Amino acid sequence: MSKINEFTKGFLKENPVLVLLIGMCPALATTTSALNGIGMGLATTFVLTCSNIVISLLSGVIPDKVRIPAFIVVIASFVTIVDLIMQAFVPTLYNTLGIFIPLIVVNCIVLARAEAFASKNGVFASFLDGAGMGLGFTTSLGVLGIIRELLGNGAIFGHKIIQGDGILVFILAPGAFIVLGYIIAIVNKIKKTQEA
Amino acid sequence: MEYILIIISAIFVNNVVLSQFLGICPFLGVSNKINTSLGMAGAVVFVVVLSTLVTHLIYTFILVKLGLAFMQTITYILVIATLVQMVEIVLKKISRPLYQALGIFLPLITTNCMVLGVSLLVIKKNYTLAESVVYSAATAIGFGLALVILAGIREQLELVNIPKGMKGAPISLITAGILSLAFMGFSGIVK
Question: Does pLDDT of A1 surpass 60?
Fold first, then answer.
């Protein structure tokens, strides 16, 4: 039961973007369409899961004082792997996401899970934690991407649903801020009603 | 002339926070008060320019020469983390007042994706060393400008009665969105 909990907590209760408010930069920048958002989310999930596994394996070996630099090196290695793989196999997506692939290194979620969870827990639990958090991140990016694409372009995953031009501003930068602001407000509201 | 174009484009047209989405975390985190946001802005300008300078030199003279350009991400993040630590130690020894003004912001800056982002962007844009320094300074100033403006608005917002769910992050994000809308008015000034 508790193992399932490690996996599911990333989706709503501790959702990185919507509740903990970390990893905002890629969440805003890469969600111009649903597909881009999910692509970015999956890239982050891969890095998060792999780095969680490796760090939990190495937690006995790494001296406490240099643990943060050591974590960063592990994370940066996996980011380089993702960077090269995406460049080779999905060049269009790679070009759209651009600088935000290497920037996964400084995504606070990855380091936060390494420090707060993977360095203290077993391999399997860390794997579940990484995968759950990563997929929670992917879900929120997907939701943000779907809303922005629908409003801005009248389409979902590239399929036109509403005819005519969309409200272009939702694809552009201001739309990202405004949509995310409203989603977080709704999540806050739901949390308050549940507590009450 | 070219430098002026780079400066205007980096501060207003392609503002780093409002149109490129770098450094959102500190942008939302320290924009409560104008004073703290000024401190943060100062620290960011300092660190971004320094780290762009150093990483640009390392890239052209070490990584490219040795054919290790794919090690860019790992090298940069380590260099930046070390650099920030060193700046903190040096400032503590040399200038107490400056350290007190910027000190608490320095550790936060390592995780500011703007620092790594700008270092990577100047390589992508094929800027020369001088252009890189100008670009990084202008970008950091743009960050400071957006931060101070948002802080000013948020100080006023404290006094306004808004729905409970909107308090904190949501209203800041929406304010930032409107600010970004205003900054879009600058597009077209520079090609």
Answer: no
Mean of all residue pLDDT scores within chain A: 87
Q: Is A45 exposed, middle or buried (0-12, 13-18, 19+ CB in 10 A)?
A: buried
Mean pLDDT over the full length of chain B: 86
- Look at residue B191 in the predicted model and tell me its pLDDT: 60
- Taking CA atoms, B190 is separated from A166, B131, B133, B142, B146, in Å, by 26, 16, 19, 15, 19
Q: Which residues of B touch A174 (CB under 8 A)?
A: 177-178, 180-181, 184
Q: Tell me, what DSSP letter sits at residue B126? A: T
pTM strictly above 0.90 = no
Query: What pairs with residue A188 in β-bridges?
Result: none
Q: Residues B61-79: pLDDT tens digits?
A: 999 888 888 888 889 888 8
Q: What is the spatial distance between Cα B140 and Cα A82, in angstroms, rounded to a whole number?
A: 28
Closest partner residue to A25 (CB to CB) among B24, B81, B121 is: B24
What is the ipTM, given to two decimal places? 0.84
Chain B CA closest to residue A95: B124
Contacts with A177 from chain B: Cβ below 8 Å: 173-174, 176-177, 180
Query: Residue A144 has which token pair?
Result: 């943000």
Q: Do B173 and A180 touch (CB under 8 A)?
A: yes
